[in-house]
Amino acid sequence: MSGKKQGALEPRASDAEVTAFLDQVASMPKPAAAGSTGRLVFAMDATASREPAWDRATHIQAEMFQAAGTAGSLRIQLCWYRGFMEFHASPWSDDAAALLQEMTRVRCAAGQTQIGRVLKHTIDEARSARINALVFVGDCMEEDPATLEALAGELALLGIPAFMFQDGQDPRAEPVFRAIARLTRGAYCRLDANSAEQLKELLRAVAAYAAGGIPALERLARDGGSAIRELTHQMKR
Q1: Which of 47, 59, 69, 224 could form a disulfide with 96 if both were Cys (CB 3.0 to 4.6 A apart)?
Q2: Considering the entire predicted model, what is its pTM?
Q3: Structural domains in the chain plus CATH codes
């Protein structure tokens, strides 16, 4: 079971990792056409090991929801798992306040990871209506890697890129998160307690891209940080 981890402070995600993330996003298939409504699944690990970073993550992710509301037409479904096989998926919404309220009600509880369930759920949702992207934020992986990679292959066939954000540096999780991102033509980035601003920018960029493609990114880049401006530049090349 996932529990609170002990040990030294983790290093900041390197500039090279951020650049690699932006390069991966730049090579992704383009999102929904202009004028259509994008759909994004935002999934979170709410097991006990995430508790120390939960308040920070909630604040950052709330800013992503708010950015999504101004970047273009985008509906988000919030998913999370925790405890003994507890899994929840919210209704689809484009209301940033409602999404934030939903997220702030979640409390972490000890339990095993359910990344496979997240991937299966996204696949099932995509069979009824197109999904433009999956965002996952978690720190652990306690499942069979081959099973997760097979599900990632199904996401790829449906054209759903997975943005895999690793909160920390669990050595078992990293290669699997990277594989899921690679197989789906998504992107991977490692996060830590020092990368709050970085995560905020990257999540806002993902939301803008899923909602409105390059034009939405350009609007966001006018007031955004260096990561968003670099992403916009790379995707226009």
Answers
A1: 69
A2: 0.76
A3: 34-212 (3.40.50.410)
